[in-house]
Amino acid sequence: MSRLAACLFALPLLAWADCPPLLKHEFKTLQGQPLNLCSMAGKPILVVNTASKCGYTRQFETLEAMYKQYKAQGLMVVGFPSNDFKQELASNKEIGDFCKLTYFIEFPMAEASSVRGEGANPFFKALAQASGQAPKWNFQKYLIAPDGKTVYPFSTPTEPDAPELLAKLKPMLKPTK
C-alpha cells in the first residue's frame, strides 16, 4: 500500500479515536444515507426523539427554524423517530415524506428506532445514562455540549426555543462574523 493510501485509510480511524464515546454511533437517515455522530463532534447537538402523530409534533417547526438560524454557528439538530409511544408512522419513507412535506425538515433524521427501555438504541441508552433521564414521551430533547460529554435534558413540554434551553445553547455557538 502506498504511503498516501495508508494515510487516507487511517484518517477515519483517527477521527473515530478522537471522537467522544457518547458520539461513537452510526445510523442511517430516513433516506438510507450514513449518519455518523462523530462527524458532529465539537458542535452543540440538539437530539430529539420524534413522532409524526404526537400532539407535540408541531415542535418540528421550531426545531427546523432553530437549525436554520444557528447552523452557521455550529448547531446540529438530529431527530430520532420512534414508535415507542405508538404515535409514529409505519415506515421510514412515510416518516421522511411527512417531515419533508409537512414541516420542510432539512436537519438529519435517523431511521426509526426504539429510544427507551431495554430495546433502546445504544445512543439513547448512553444519553439516558449521561443525563439521568430516559425519554418519558415523544419530543424529549438532549442538548449535547461541544465537548461531547456534557448533556442537558429537556422534557417534552419544553419548547426547543425555550429560554432555559437557549441559555444553555447560546454560549456553545460560534460567534457570527
UniProtKB/TrEMBL annotation:
Domain Thioredoxin: 14-174
Active-site residues from the entry: 54
GO biological process per UniProt: cellular response to oxidative stress
Signal sequence residues: 1-17
Keywords: Oxidoreductase, Peroxidase, Signal
GO MF, any single term: peroxidase activity
Highest taxon above the source species: Bacteria
UniProt keyword Oxidoreductase, yes or no: yes
Family named by the database record: Belongs to the glutathione peroxidase family.
Listed name of the protein: Glutathione peroxidase
